[in-house]
Amino acid sequence: MKITLKLALLALTHTLMFSSVLAQAPREITNVSSLVEEEYDPISSLLDSLVTINNVVRYNQLDAKCFDPSAIIPGEIPQFSTQVYEQRMAAIHSPIPLSYNSHVKGFIDMYAVKKRGLTQRVMGLSNLYFPIFEEALDREGLPLEFKYLSIVESALNPIAVSRVGATGIWQFMYNTGLQYNLKVNSYTDERRDPIKSTQAACQYFKDMYKIYGDWLLVIAAYNCGAGNVNKAIKRSGGKTNFWDIMNYLPNETKNYVPAFIAITYVMEHAREHNLYPVSPAYSYFEVDTVIVNQPINFKTLAATLDLPLDVISYLNPIYKRGLIPDVGGNYVLRLPTNKMAIYMLSQESIYAESLPSARPVMNSYKNRVSQVEEEGDEVANYEPDNYREQTKRVKKTHIVRRGESLGKIASKYDMTLAQVKKMNKLRSSTVRSGQRLTVYNWVKTKVPVKAVSNDELTVKKEVAHKADTVQKTEVDEQADAINDTQKVSNETAEVKNSPKPAFTYYIVQPGDTLWNIAKRYEGLTVEMIKNINNLSNTNIKPGTKLKVLVNG
Asked: Which has more pLDDT, 509 or 179?
């Protein structure tokens, strides 16, 4: 009785989670494939969201090892008869009843024909996530085909967010996530964690199966909530087959189950449809984990490991602000295995450089002055430490070390790449070992504190404000004077010492990103490509002609 009541309450709560989605009464449809084209469809939309992370997941070209040239002509889009589809579907051994009909055919066309390029990216991402899903599903005794449901939910985009706020690979709403122990705070969101969210999804599948005993109804309930499935069963006269209650379900759920069956078929018969994975930069076996109990700033981590910041963020989607917070407890950090040794050797320095800058705090002398203003005491002879600390920005010379990039140097001194280039009159991002660069550095100095009386206090406040303004102006003028003095000699030295750069042109191919283009040319970086071609972002289109530096 207690278990039944708990599941009933769970079903009601989950239904309320979807109330905002289902505010409008659903209209009945007979052709699901037409709905995909005519109306907003979250399944198609989330598949399209992979385009927005193209610069994050650095896709390579089609995996040539998977391609069988003797089977199908490259680029051909095969078409099959209804009988072939039915035979292949029946041959998929699964406890989930997989049927072929016109609704399923509409989504097979979407995955295998209309959006086949995105489907191939999903196939590549599956190498990163499916081992996690399969392990959890097998441990919980669930059908392994549930792993394909994640494609319908989010297209394997761990940072996907629906129009109503469902988040992560398994698209949990905030309150539903809390029910399944997925914690969310200002710094972390466990709905984005592939492992924890998969465990939560498995538990939900098991809870729904206790209610319905039918896997297709479990899938429908995952989309619209058990309450809506119960209403559909009641309106159909008590029928418990998905296809019998389909027209009583919300429109999104009418698409949801056929889309799951379709992607299951496509993933199981990808080669027959001439679909091959477009692999991301890292697979499941190329990523390792380490436990962290101190704060880490991802910018510091990226500079130390010489790893793009967006790759670190993508492999660690749970962290919302680009850092592992300074909050009690242990956190998991995921990194490429080929960077793990460097991380372990540099761990202490990463911790040290990740510590947040101390906020300015009034020293004891200022606290005492405030107290005097309130109480009217004399402070003429009050000299607690006779000095105070002051942080100043000063110029220093950085000598480029072997293997250092301009971006890494800029990050080290909390500057932007553009600032370093401008300060040193650089026309490109190429630097040489031993080259001297002018950078800004923050240093702490001790300034003597002169005791004051109440009568002098007001005057000193006014003078201090003016002095700060004058000092800043003088420093800026001095810096400009130094730059003007060095301008001629720097430019002359650059002309004499810098080899004349050589350029070539590269035509962007489908699946290319600036990152994998840069890897093809020694010494070339993404920032260099952007600067040479005046690109404001990393989005590129196939057929674009890019100018690239081949030596410098």
From this structure: 179
* Owning domain of residue 43: 2-273
Separation between Cα atoms, residue 26 and residue 10, nearest integer Å: 24
Question: Which residues, 6 or more positions from 335, have their beta carbon under 8 angstroms from its beta carbon?
Answer: 287, 288, 289, 290, 305, 307, 312, 315, 343
Distance CA 236, CA 547 (A): 63
Residues 319 and 250 in one domain: no
- CA Rg, the chain, in Å? 30
Q: Is the pLDDT of residue 285 over 90?
A: no
Chosen domain end from 254, 273, 292: 273
The structural domain count of the chain equals: 4
CATH code where residue 223 lies: 1.10.530.10
Does residue 518 share a domain with residue 422? no
The enclosing H or E element of 137 equals: helix 116-139
- pLDDT tens for each residue of 351-377: 888 876 544 444 444 444 444 444 444
User: Taking Cα atoms as reference points, which of 248, 11, 278 lies closest to residue 128?
Assistant: 278
Share of the chain above pLDDT 90, in %: 38
Same domain flag for 331 and 438 = no
Question: What is the β-pairing status of strands 502-507 and 436-448?
Answer: unpaired
Asked if 85 contacts 108 with a C-beta cutoff of 8 angstroms, the reply is yes
Position 422 scores a pLDDT of 85
Taking residue 380's Cβ as centre, other Cβ atoms within 10 Å add up to: 11
Burial profile 259-292: b = 16 or more Cβ within 10 angstroms, e = fewer: bbbbbbbbbbbbebbbbbbbbbbbbeeebeeeeb
Q: Which pair of tokens denotes residue 255? A: 């698409």
Among 333, 354, 375, give the residue marking a domain's end.
354
Q: Is 6 within 8 Å of 206 (Cβ atoms)? A: no
Residue 247's pLDDT band (cuts 50, 70, 90):
very high
pTM above 0.90, yes or no: no
Q: Exposure of 7 by Cβ count < 10 A (0-12 exposed, 13-18 middle, 19+ buried)?
A: middle
Read off the pLDDT of residues 78-115 as tens digits, 9 standing for 90 and up: 889 999 999 999 999 999 999 999 999 999 999 999 98
User: Which of 208, 152, 204 lies closest to 182, judged by CA?
Assistant: 204
DSSP 161: B
List CB contacts of 320: < 8 A, sequence separation 6 or more: 186, 187, 188, 189
Number of neighbours of residue 239 by Cβ within 10 angstroms: 14
